[in-house]
Design brief:
2 domains, Rossmann fold, DNA polymerase, domain 1, 8-stranded mixed sheet, 13 helices, alpha/beta, globular, 8 strands, single chain, about 300 residues
Length: about 300
């Protein structure tokens, strides 16, 4: 069963006015959205967004139940266009719960997990785009290695990429089980308490779904999408995402860069956001109930001008 991570904390951080307009940029199965709607008044509005057709099906049910909720099937990187279509200007808050969801991981047919053998798909949006199997069939060793290193932070990327190219010459790599076996056998140094295929699967998944590209695009547009006083709440599950979010929020809070030693009034720095509290992690109780919450980290920033 899917358990929404940092549910109360995210809703508390996001909602500043119960009559406001908010965005749940990663609807999933609607855990955060349902909690947000409970917090909003009759005048409040919520737009849910997700790439996953299974999420769209769950969202259609919620939209039928609650007229304050609308849904867009697509990437949150396209949020400006989605808001225009809904006749919505700037919003009071945007929530992103990044990465792959429990239902996606647990469904072997989706191809996200090395724990369940299934077709090597890995697309969050199964209605479009290239599957992991299709990409691995055509990509060169250098390209595969670059993806494993950049997005999976895999130390043995070149070695693993070479093993993949060798193996596909014998037969196409079409299942998660076969890919996991190839990667594991090529990985010379297994990390304690971590499956040797973890980093490679992460890297391929992030690349196939443009996860970091979408995040960068959304962050670049966040200030224009938020009202003054509007909040951006982001829950990340690995260091690549969190690094991007942390750097963005820090830069927006610092304002314009000035040469060292030059006296400048604080008001002239053009600070655009303020950080709200420190990065927040799931409590020990939540981690005990839901081990996948262990790596979650939430950051919050508010637009100030």
């Amino acid at each position: 069963m899917h358990q929404t991570v940092l549910l109360r904390e995210a809703v508390d951080a996001l909602v500043t006015t119960t009559a406001g307009t908010y965005v749940d940029g990663t609807f999933g199965r609607g855990g955060h959205s349902r909690a947000l709607l409970q917090r909003l008044s009759e005048q409040g509005r919520l737009l849910g967004v997700d790439k996953d057709p299974a999420a769209a099906a769950a969202a259609a049910q919620l939209a039928a139940e609650d007229p304050r909720f609308t849904f867009f099937h697509g990437s949150f990187a396209l949020l400006p266009e989605q808001l225009r279509q809904q006749g919505i200007g700037a919003v009071d808050g945007i929530l992103l719960d990044l990465g792959v969801s429990s239902p996606q991981l647990d469904d072997s047919a989706r191809g996200f997990s090395f724990l369940h053998d299934g077709p090597l798909d890995m697309r969050m949006d199964t209605s479009r785009g290239e599957t992991a199997a299709e990409w691995l069939a055509r990509a060169g060793a250098a390209e595969i290695a670059a993806v494993l290193k950049e997005y999976g932070e895999e130390r043995f990327a070149k070695r693993i990429a070479g093993a993949i190219v060798e193996a596909r010459a014998e037969a196409p790599i079409t299942t998660t089980g076969r890919l996991a076996k190839i990667v594991s056998e090529a990985n010379p140094r297994w990390e304690k308490h971590k499956n040797p295929a973890t980093r490679s699967f992460q890297g391929i998944r992030i690349y196939i779904n443009r996860e970091l590209d979408d995040l960068v695009e959304l962050l670049a547009q966040a200030l224009t999408l938020l009202q003054v006083g509007g909040r951006l709440v982001v829950i990340s599950f690995h260091s690549l995402e969190d690094r991007l979010v942390k750097r963005y929020m820090r830069d927006m809070a610092r304002g314009d860069a000035v040469p060292a030693g030059v006296p400048v009034l604080d008001s002239a720095l053009n600070r655009r956001m303020r950080l709200l509290g420190k990065a927040l992690r799931a409590s020990a109780e939540e981690v005990a109930a839901n081990p996948r919450a262990r790596s979650a980290i939430m950051r919050v920033a508010e637009k100030i001008n």
